[in-house]
Design brief:
By secondary structure, the protein is an alpha+beta fold. The protein is built from five helices and six strands, in the order H-E-E-H-H-E-E-E-E-H-H. Strand 1 and strand 2 form a beta hairpin. The longest helix is centred in the last third of the chain and has 28 residues.
């Protein structure tokens, strides 16, 4: 347990920060553009909205999409939690395990919203849902409209239309998942090299034990 307990604590920390930020926004901000708070100029704002679907505002356009998404998140979280324990016992690189813990914490952070918020927070449930359980909307608040401009008139189809660069609104849980995946991709070679070293060390140890056994 000691080998992977610390990684579960990382996941728990992500969950606590995520849930605390959502509650602070819910109880202290007005929803929509009127409640926006500028954090760093105009390009980083807090913007309170309810997201019925996936990360970064994406949605399932189907009747049972939300339920399927929530159940998938629960199953995926269980798989990641098992992977952390399994890989920790096999002495995987600590950085890789931290990345998995971030992804686990982010997934569970949004699972909590989906499973419980429809019941615990008034007005949060997705309209016309068969039950408030598993149909809560995720609270998002991080908004980075870094560039607000207009497409040049010569651009086909969208010329003259207004656009905002990076318009999705997301939360701490989404950020943890994104960063966890990003770090795995960036440091993939380092993590793979460590795995090869551990594999070689294990094979060497087993060979030495076999030789020692034969010599007795």
């Amino acid at each position: 347990m000691k080998k992977y307990k610390k990684y579960y604590l990382v996941a728990l920390l992500v969950i606590l920060i995520d849930q605390a930020s959502k509650m602070l926004v819910h109880f202290n901000m007005e929803m929509g553009p009127l409640g926006e708070v500028n954090v760093l100029g105009d390009w980083f704002r807090l913007h309170y909205l309810l997201n019925p679907g996936m990360a970064f505002g994406m949605q399932f356009d189907m009747e049972f999409g939300k339920l399927i998404l929530t159940l998938f998140r629960i199953v995926a979280s269980g798989g990641i939690a098992y992977a952390i324990a399994y890989l920790a016992r096999r002495k995987a690189h600590w950085g890789f395990l931290v990345c998995l813990a971030m992804i686990l914490g982010g997934a569970l952070g949004n699972v909590i919203d989906s499973v419980f918020y429809g019941v615990l927070i008034d007005g949060n449930v997705i309209p016309n849902s068969p039950t408030p359980w598993f149909h809560g909307r995720v609270i998002d608040m991080l908004y980075f409209p870094m560039v607000s401009s207009t497409y040049p008139s010569w651009v086909p189809v969208v010329g003259g239309n207004h656009f905002i660069f990076f318009s999705p609104v997301f939360n701490i849980a989404d950020s943890a998942i994104f960063l966890g995946v990003l770090f795995i991709l960036v440091f993939q070679k380092k993590f793979s090299a460590h795995e090869e070293e551990q594999k070689a060390a294990t094979e060497s140890l087993e060979m030495n034990r076999e030789i020692a056994g034969k010599s007795e």
